[in-house]
């Protein structure tokens, strides 16, 4: 449970959730679990249709759509604020909805507000930044964000969201807009707020140019998680320490303070670039997916986002069903139960409720002050453990069949700690999970089963 004064250091994307449901989730789960913020789906009016991607085709900047009305949106923001949870909005302003006339009277934008029609082709990402910036994501009229009237319309939208209490923005398709255009728009939006920019690395986009606007999504981290946990490209967990080493930085990740990271987002979890492998893991990877979150939340790099949406079927994605069902403040739920296997029937994955994830949000918050890794140990390619100095210790056993049992140096002071993955500290101080004894030299004898993890920290002493 969250304790006042502890920083909130992770956020969740409640993809396609309704505003009223998000307000309730803030109060019942996100706030108490220590989430910093919730990213919400694009709230502006979009083309009709039930597919998720209709919301990436704006027809105006009015707050209206299947997640709810402006009044419901406002109520959500205030309920979340009361629970200590900020709201970040996914804002789409690189383009408007597919429409041959290029006329959007409700903004209004007319044909003169757009770049000349041309579609981005794959080779552009290797050799033509101008086309990545000024041609269209296939079919989507590309706004000329160098025009002041266009910048003003977008800034009006962002300022409107700010007036409703919004604390941050995820800028959709950011690398398809010049960094100076984004800066000029944000300059028209006063105050201080969080920004993260969707910037999939390619051969032509200088990611560092975007730092002046806020953080960027570091997609290389997502690929590192996929490769290690799904054993792609000959990689494994034991290599993560070297891959993520902040000094050697062999993959050239952006600096931690500039990065937002996730195990999967709404695009990568659906895409199979080679027709076989998903671009990232997703909920169908089960325990492997949860263990990757355990790692992401334990490892000191970036600002992590947990993706939580509806069960999708890659081949027949029918769009979001009706709302998740959650009932009481203690976490019992009908549809939204954590750690269930995808069935397609219950509708929503509720990834953020999983103990592997929710428990680790607390771990990240409580270990934030020790932004380094110590006591790293790996006994096999699939087994790693490490400390966050004297504040927390985690064991991740991704081995399919073998348990991992040994004595570990935890780095923690002597005492008994409550494992936040098998359970957690209850309101009455009882530990519902495993209790771990750390001796006077920091050692604990532990046994962690296959595809399981264990995490203890100073905020959950048994
Ligand atoms: C993004 N980031 O840069 C979003 O994260 C991603 O989800 C969006 O694509 C994309 N940019 C545009 O905002 C999604 C979806 C596309 C879909 C678009 C627009 O992945 O498949 O394109 O939203 O709704 C759809 C059709 C596509 C068609 C296009 C225009 O799937 O076949 O292309 O509309 O009609 C002709
Ligand atoms: Ca553009």
UniProtKB/TrEMBL annotation:
Its cofactor is Ca(2+). This is Alpha-amylase. It comes from Parachitinimonas caeni. Belongs to the glycosyl hydrolase 13 family. The chain holds residues 45 to 506 of 611 of the full protein. The keyword Calcium applies. Coiled coil: none annotated. Keywords: Calcium, Carbohydrate metabolism, Glycosidase, Hydrolase, Metal-binding, Signal. It catalyses: Endohydrolysis of (1->4)-alpha-D-glucosidic linkages in polysaccharides containing three or more (1->4)-alpha-linked D-glucose units. Its EC number is 3.2.1.1.
